[in-house]
Amino acid sequence: MNFWEQLIYFFSFTDANVSNVLIGTLLLGIASGMVGTLVVLSKKTLIIDAISHSMLPGICIGFMLSGVKNPVYLMLGGMSSATVAVYLIAEISQRSKIKVDAAIAITLSILFSFGVIMLNVVQNSGNPNQSGLNDFLFGKAASMLRKDLYMFGGLCLIIFICLPVFFRHFKISLFDPIFAQSIGIKKYFIQSIISFLIIVTAAAGVQTVGIILISAMIIAPASAALFWTNNFRLTMIYAGIVGAGCSIVGVFISFLLPEMPTGPWIVVMLASVSILSVLFSPSGLLVKQIQIRKNKKSILRENVLKTVYKLKEKIKGKKKGISTEEVSNYRPTAIRKVRSALKHLKRKGLVIKGGDYWTLTENGVQEAERIVRVHRLWELYLQKYMHLPSNYVHNSAESIEHIVTPEIEQALAEVMGKPELDPHNQKIPYGK
Amino acid sequence: MQTNSLEVHDLTVSYQHNPVLWNINFNVPAGKLTGIIGPNGAGKSTLLKAIMELTPVSGGYAKLFGKSLEKVRTRIAYVPQKDAVDWDFPATVLDVVQMGRYGNKSLFRKLSKKDEDIAVECLSKVEMLDYSDRHISELSGGQKQRVFIARALAQEADMYFMDEPFAGIDAASEKQIIDILLKMKEEGKSIFVVHHDLQSAIDYFDWIILINTRLIASGPISTTFTTENLKETYGGKLTLLSKLGQELKSKQFPIREEE
């Protein structure tokens, strides 16, 4: 089969095994993304690791007591020991000097060690059913059977019912817990529901992605989604979509290459989406960098324009115009940069080139005068209202002149009137 | 007989056996704009939290309109300090104000058109309507406070508790907020404001509660805002009280015997 045939086969649901895995991970992706939104916004992401790791001893006890690898017993065991962990963390941090992060670390490592010891005991017990129990560490999506899927669907159903029912409770409590309490929302009730939902998600996820990686499945989608919207509901929906999308890709990769593990691939996809969000979202780093570069360029252009204007003021028509070198020397700037700035100004119709000399067009004069005017008015303003001596005002004005909007300029002109001279006795240009 | 909006009886609060409020008793008539005044660490915010049952009390109780909080909750609005919340939370200004509407209706149901109209109206009362679609992280300190006040207005309560609404905001916003509070008072609302600026207190409030761990005085501003009372309020904690407090903390004694 080539790639496309495999793609069609994969999504056609003709293969029962494939469709079991696909439906399972799809549900898990949506559920973990949505529950993750609650966890990330309540700033308690560390608790997920504690919950998932402390499921191991419970899973082992569930197996020891039942003697079979029935997912219902295993998950009931895992969820019980996770509940114990949540309770322990709360008690330790409230009743002793130990802070929450330390309480989480202590609980997590102790219960996980117990789990690993029990796993060893079980593996050496001679019970033939035990094989595959250690798959819970890293997860094994491919092993998902129809009966696993029923339990899985049940767990996801709990999540999909709780989220809309308590949606407003969550929104208000996560934003402003004190206000939430003041209108009668019970703090411990909401906290318990959130903990319960994390436990359910973790229980659903251990078989697919495993104890070690489930926290990434819960945290990553919401973290990525937060970059794209300012709306709580949409954050949750986006997180669900990201979780589902990455899960499908992860499953598909391990379908194409059966030796590839599903869980880690899902997490790698999630990490990629998160990194892309950090870089490329509207509030991301790249957009900011582009803005900074743009600003730098526009500052350079305005400075070049101003320099041409000032040099022209000095020579008072003795020469035909100003050369590129003169601009670059007057205000030490690389000649390459000056040249590209002048070219851009020419395209905007602010300067024209005659031979080797640059002169300002009428629009260019107007624009240059505006910059010089803002600069000198601002110097006066600083002197008058901030009582700065005149030798301190230039540097501030040098940067302010580039960011003053027409509205601020008008306000500045209203405050200052129409003074003739700036603090350095230079004329303030007002145009015609 | 004049009705009381708030009665506090023998209220005592301690954090980890360290007493923060000792035996607070006072009554405030309805329809007053009351300032709760005292130095840093005097327990002003704790007093509000204890009345709102947001913090456990060691003894005593408060009555609001003569009843327990649970019975009159929908008539009470509480405005936390603006630093107490996460301003990066994904919500717009309008979202926050709409939360106020859930004060007196079921959280399991959607807001009605009328609720939405009330939220918009409250936003325009604090002159923040132009910002309704802004993300809350883009607001200045004064604007954040006004959004909080709009949320409280949306609760359409009869009694308001505000924790330091004038902290860290510009003079223009302060003026705006005090105008809103005065208008609310005219409508007969009872308002309690934690405040620490003595200078402006005399202009803003008509009733004053002076506390510093214990109650110093409570009464109309004309008779209560005296040099003598202020001296006592800001003259530091009573040494004997704080010594006893340290003793309680270090030996883990309860401040009230359990019944």
Main β-sheet, spatial strand arrangement of chain B: 5-6-7-3-8-9
If you average the pLDDT of chain A, what whole number results? 88
Secondary-structure element series of chain A: HHHHHHHHHHHHHHHHHEEHHH
| CATH architect. name of the largest domain in chain A | Orthogonal Bundle
Number of distinct beta strands of chain A? 2
Q: What share of the residues of chain A does DSSP label as strand, in percent?
A: under 5%
Tally of distinct domains of chain A: 3
Q: What strand line-up does the widest sheet of chain A have?
A: 1-2
Let me know the number of strands of chain B. 9
Distance between the termini of chain A: 78 Å
User: Helical amount among residues of chain B, as a percent range?
Assistant: 25-40%
Through-space gap between termini of chain B: 35 Å
The best one-word shape of chain A is elongated
Report on the architecture of this protein.
- The complex is a heterodimer of chains A (432) and B (259).
- Chain A is mainly alpha-helical and 432 residues long.
- Chain A has 3 domains: 281 residues, ABC transporter involved in vitamin B12 uptake, BtuC (Orthogonal Bundle); 74 residues, Arc Repressor Mutant, subunit A (Orthogonal Bundle); 52 residues, Diphtheria Toxin Repressor, domain 2 (Orthogonal Bundle), CATH 1.10.60.
- In chain A, 73% of the residues lie in helices and 2% in strands.
- Chain A has 20 helices and 2 strands.
- The longest helix of chain A has 31 residues.
- Chain B contains 10 helices and 9 strands.
- Chain B has a 6-stranded mixed beta sheet, with helices on both faces. A 3-stranded antiparallel beta sheet of chain B has the order 2-1-4.
- In chain B, strand 1 and strand 2 form a beta hairpin.
- The longest helix of chain B is centred in the last third of the chain and has 16 residues.
- Classes of the chains: A mainly alpha (432), B alpha/beta (259).
- At the A-B interface, helix 9, helix 10 and helix 13 of A face strand 5 and helix 3 of B.
